[in-house]
């Protein structure tokens, strides 16, 4: 496992298409709630700074996240889930998110393997849908 705990996938879509597909996939899932969208590029621009397209969507499923935080409250630093869509200077669009196994180790979560597996599978599926044509 990458010791940074970050999983990154390259998208086959444009930046906007990737973000919209990601948002739509999350929004259309009745188990997930979008809590925040953050446009880092727009915020940088407001301050006269340049930044490649970079957006963060924060979302969660309290039915899965709450039991984990009951096990290790410090997990609240990393939950709810976040997925970053970013484009580099060469026009390559990527999606990055926290690896749930890394979060388990980082916060010392014991047990809860089934929940962590569900979260890992859901994140993989959501990001694969968003990055694939």
UniProtKB/TrEMBL annotation:
Residues 38-100 form the DUF302 domain. Gene3D superfamilies: TT1751-like domain. It holds the Pfam family DUF302. It comes from the Bacteria. PANTHER family: INNER MEMBRANE OR EXPORTED (PTHR38342:SF2), SLR5037 PROTEIN (PTHR38342). This is DUF302 domain-containing protein. It comes from Flagellimonas hymeniacidonis.
């Amino acid at each position: 496992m990458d010791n940074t705990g970050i999983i990154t996938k390259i998208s086959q879509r444009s930046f906007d298409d990737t973000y919209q597909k990601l948002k739509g996939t999350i929004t259309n899932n009745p188990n997930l709630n979008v809590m925040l969208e953050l446009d880092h590029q727009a915020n940088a621009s407001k301050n006269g700074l340049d930044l490649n397209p970079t957006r963060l969507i924060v979302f969660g499923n309290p039915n899965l996240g709450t039991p984990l935080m009951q096990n290790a409250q410090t997990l609240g630093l990393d939950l709810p889930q976040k997925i970053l869509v970013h484009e580099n200077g060469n026009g390559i669009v990527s999606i990055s998110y926290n690896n749930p196994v890394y979060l388990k180790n980082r916060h010392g979560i014991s047990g809860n393997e089934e929940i962590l597996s569900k979260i890992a599978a859901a994140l993989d599926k959501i990001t694969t849908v968003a990055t694939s044509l």
